[in-house]
Amino acid sequence: MSQQSGFNVAVVGATGAVGQQMIQTLVKENFPYKKLLLLSSSRSAGQKIVVNGEEYTVQEAKPESFEGIDIALFSAGGSVSKELAPEAVKRGAIVVDNTSAFRMDADKPLVVPEVNETDLHQHTGIIANPNCSTIQMVVALEPIRQKFGLKKVIVSTYQAVSGAGAKAVQELMDQTKSILANEPVEPKILPVGSDKNHYQIAFNAIPQIDKFQENGFTFEEMKMINETKKIMHLPELAVSATCVRLPVAVGHSESVYFEIDQENVSADEIKALLKDAPGVILQDDPEDQVYPMPANCVGSNDVFVGRIRKDLDEDQGFHMWVVSDNLLKGAAWNSVQIAQSLVKLGLVKEK
Amino acid sequence: MSQQSGFNVAVVGATGAVGQQMIQTLVKENFPYKKLLLLSSSRSAGQKIVVNGEEYTVQEAKPESFEGIDIALFSAGGSVSKELAPEAVKRGAIVVDNTSAFRMDADKPLVVPEVNETDLHQHTGIIANPNCSTIQMVVALEPIRQKFGLKKVIVSTYQAVSGAGAKAVQELMDQTKSILANEPVEPKILPVGSDKNHYQIAFNAIPQIDKFQENGFTFEEMKMINETKKIMHLPELAVSATCVRLPVAVGHSESVYFEIDQENVSADEIKALLKDAPGVILQDDPEDQVYPMPANCVGSNDVFVGRIRKDLDEDQGFHMWVVSDNLLKGAAWNSVQIAQSLVKLGLVKEK
């Protein structure tokens, strides 16, 4: 890669589960960077990370860190984004933020390139990357909305622990070993590190992701509900969600029921649409037991869709099963993809 | 227990995961048996089983085995039931059958005592025990139907591997050990022992339980749909299901969306109903992170319900999370409970 042309890119939260994937994705997707700045909290600063054969030292993220940066990918928690994203913008960077800090701000685009790439034109410095479980669902729903309209969505999720960070994956593995050895487990992180109680995730299912809201839904469920409406430009869409954490390391799955606007549409028409949809891999052949599973999606940027079938009672109702790598399309890849779109649309200039 | 009074009880499939639970449940619930006959295939015959301190030798199930038997609990697969249940009835036994062999026969009651105990009066010798995932759902839905009516149900399940038998549990544990040791796995049983392909269940989620039907739904999904309508006497109820196998040993969970007939009902009214419902334990306190989980339900006969909340768009729509021990209320306990009901209703006579 030439040192003369390309963009100055910063990754904030470079030592985290998503940050690591962001760095790998920038390399794998040949993102045109000329400088890569790896930033973290003071606690992780000083760590060495090898990127594409070159060793980088992680530096503490400070307002001054963003001098000369063109694009900053943030994934270090909402409070870091709230503090430092405006500082990065003040210094001329465009921020792609993978936290919930700015997602519902009316003046900040919330973008999944396959769905609403053109919203990037309205950006004012910060672009929000949606919640992982929202992204994979809207990628599968958008081609359906475009052709047949969309009235209602009811989703139940089957989410991997890596969505709660690298330490949660370690907790799953440690607990699993303990249980296999008939030793007691001491949950410390899941379901929510900062919540009061922690529960066993190994060989269990926990119907809580993020904290509970006043209305009985969790924040994760409200993210899916509100972000879907915003990304798809469907404020009147009926959406509901039940979000559940599973003993799976990587790969979110979703059982999605949806109702379209048109009558007399067949499951085969939905399948034909999704077969050619951007970012989607159709895996739908019940006869040969072909359907998506988290164990098969790890490491892929795509959204896998299968088990598409028409509801037996509601002519406009359908069911499908949507799986994707929550660290890639759900986070790192979608962020890098937004950066690619910014370059393609001429919305970011090299310094 | 007196040898003089009580019933002669046979357990067919005594060495299987459910059969073992049936025997334990007969003892734990003080079912009034005077003779206990443990039957199995010729392959498992000869095994010794200690019940309540007494050693029993498992015998091969044959038509003649049922001479003098009052109640026969079957859980040895559909083909065994089809062959031997009529033979047992011919010899004067009442059969409680925990397979799918007779569930949809119009002349055979399909019974969950909390819901339709009085259907037992119509029996003609064979009573069917419903599918595990159906039972726990209808126990939670019935009190709601009674008070508010029921129009529609959309369920996504999170099912434990023990529903596929003791060998499937062993497969989960063996695969888990292999993956933790970075060794390859060789799936042989799940998702369906007799189907063509087998997939990894450890740290994965498989959206297939039982074989696929022509309409794209699996047989497990169709069982939930058809059995729910039959048990609840609601042939017009709109029901749909997506059934998913998880790396959980025991305990099925269900994300249930349902619509009632009445308007302006609150989630608190639904909670109040379920708090006093037979067979139900309400675990619903989001503020203190109280909700049901499979790891906490193992060994209990009850159905645990939580996360009850009103849909944000549909006034008559609600969501809930239903968990139960699939080997107990889902199988062994419901079968023994049916036997108890037969005794209580005077429908079985001691020989």
UniProtKB/TrEMBL annotation, chains A, B:
Q: Provide an example Pfam family for this protein.
A: Semialdhyde_dhC
Identify the residues that bind NADP(+).
15-18, 43-44, 162-163, 184, 326
Gene3D superfamilies assigned? Dihydrodipicolinate Reductase, domain 2, NAD(P)-binding Rossmann-like Domain
Q: Which residues form the active site?
A: 132, 252
Q: What class of enzyme is it?
A: oxidoreductase
Q: Its biological function?
A: Catalyzes the NADPH-dependent formation of L-aspartate-semialdehyde (L-ASA) by the reductive dephosphorylation of L-aspartyl-4-phosphate.
Q: What is this protein called?
A: Aspartate-semialdehyde dehydrogenase
